Structure formats: C-alpha cells, structure tokens
Amino acid sequence: MKRDPSKRARWKKKDQDNERGRTAIRYRAYPTPSQTGKVMRIAGSCRFVKNLAKEQWDLARRFGTRSPSYTRQSADLKELRDDPKLTPWLAEAPSQILQQAIRDTNTAYQRFFSGQSRYPTWAKKGSRASLGIPRM
C-alpha cells in the first residue's frame, strides 16, 4: 500500500474516554488494486466477528445470563478459525485484528451500560468498512 504524501495523519488527542492514556494514529490507506480485495475480505471478517460478538451480548441480555467475557469470546473465535469446514475464510485474517473487533464490541457495550453512548448497532456491509490494527 502506498500512502498519499498530501494526506497527513490525523491524531486523536488523549481524552477522558481513553482510560489508558494511549493515543491512536489514523491513516487513510491507498491500496493497490491487487491489495484491495484482501483488505476488503479482512474488513468483512471483522464485520462478521463484531456481529457475532454483538449477538452473544444480545442473547445474554435477552435470557438474563452473564455478559460474555473477552476471554470466552476470543476462545470462541479460536474455535471458529481452527474449523476449516465452518469458516475457512476467517483464517486468512490476522487474529489480532479479529480480537480487536471483539474488544471494540465489548467497549461499545460497556460505554452503553455506563450511559456514555447509545446501544450498539449491527456492523453493516458498505462504504465504511474499517479495521483496527492494535500494534505495529
């Protein structure tokens, strides 16, 4: 992927919501045509994992059981990735990016229950495809 030199990175300043005091750097990627397909497949895998995590939270709320933990959800993710018959396409996405999708969903629910944001919505296929890379 090449980066457009005229576009600068946008910095997110430290704020009260960012409890660990970390900052994020956001880049707009300009993938080549051959890279675009793979990036979109990875973004689709993230959307699938986010929606699966949301479904687990919704079912726990509906039936009055404990909310799913990150540890349990990441163990479920490992089972899904290891089963080539069920989701062979999930194994091509890096596990850290998929785990970050679970963390993002859990954070969305924690923010909802603390009154900081609205109820989390389903991740939809479309022009706002994104993925988070935890460390570089």
Nutshell version of this structure?
The protein has a domain of 69 residues. It has three helices and two strands.
Report on the architecture of this protein.
- This protein has a domain at 49-117.
- Helices cover 46% and strands 3% of the residues.
- The chain is built from 3 helices and 2 strands.
- It has helices at 33-63, 70-82, 95-113; strands at 10-11, 25-26.
- Helix 2 (70-82) packs antiparallel against helix 3 (95-113).
- The protein starts with 9 loop residues before the first strand and ends in a 23-residue tail after the last helix.
- Residues 11-15 have low confidence and may be disordered.
Number of β-strand runs: 2
Spatial strand arrangement across the major sheet: 1-2
How many helical elements?
A: 3
For the biggest sheet, the summary is: 2 strands, antiparallel
Mean pLDDT across every amino acid position: 84
How far apart the termini lie comes to: 15 Å
Query: Helix share of residues?
Result: 40-55%
Q: What are the segments in which pLDDT stays under 50 over at least 5 consecutive residues?
A: 11-15
- Compute the gyration radius: what is it? 16 Å
The SS-based structural class is mainly alpha
Given the C-alpha coordinates, what overall shape results?
A: globular
